[in-house]
Model the fold of this input.
Amino acid sequence: MGQPSELLNQLSAATPGSLTTAIYFPEHPTKQFPAGDVITAVISAHNDASKAYNLTAIVASLNSPMDFSMYIQNFTHQVYFKELPAGQEVSLEYKFRLAPQVPTRDFSVAVHLVYEEMGTPSFYSNTVFNGTVEVVEKPRLIDTEGLFMGAMIIGTTGLIAYWAFSNAGDKFGMKKAAGKKKVRAEAVAFDEDEWVKGTPYDVDKRRRAAAAGKGAKQ
Done:
């Protein structure tokens, strides 16, 4: 647990009718602050008095929502030394960073504008914001768990497709081999006499066979 800021403990309360302030969180308008993120706040201040003020610094803290005096984190104070004439308005940008280890739940955030009356040594504090915010988990740029699951699904699908393709290829290859084997068997059983029967070649072949037979008898 952090201790209350020494600067805040030394400040006097704002003089009534001196400053009118407002705050806006442009990147987190719903006041949901991701743990570990840098939060930007824009503070506007209007000088309602007839004298000039010096806007010295902005300090802020993260507190327990149950006990405002219990400080969870003191944010870095930022110095401005911005003169604000009577009747004028100015906007200041303030950035603070939530610690990454802050748990995700509701907290109280207090933002104070420190100012002084020009020409005097007295400092005052104007509470710009003192309200509840929700600390949420910081979004991950890359969902590693989702990527892993996607890779597993793609890998499994690829293996199934490869297995199916391999089996289909084997079956088609066996059919082609069987077809070739049958063609070779028919070639062995080819009957030449059946193909040339009745042709001049067949007649001449028979004459030569008969003449050869007579010659063998003599």
Observations:
- The longest strand covers residues 123-136.
- The CA atoms of residues 44 and 91 lie 4 Å apart.
- The chain has a mean pLDDT of 80.
- The two ends are 134 Å apart (CA to CA).
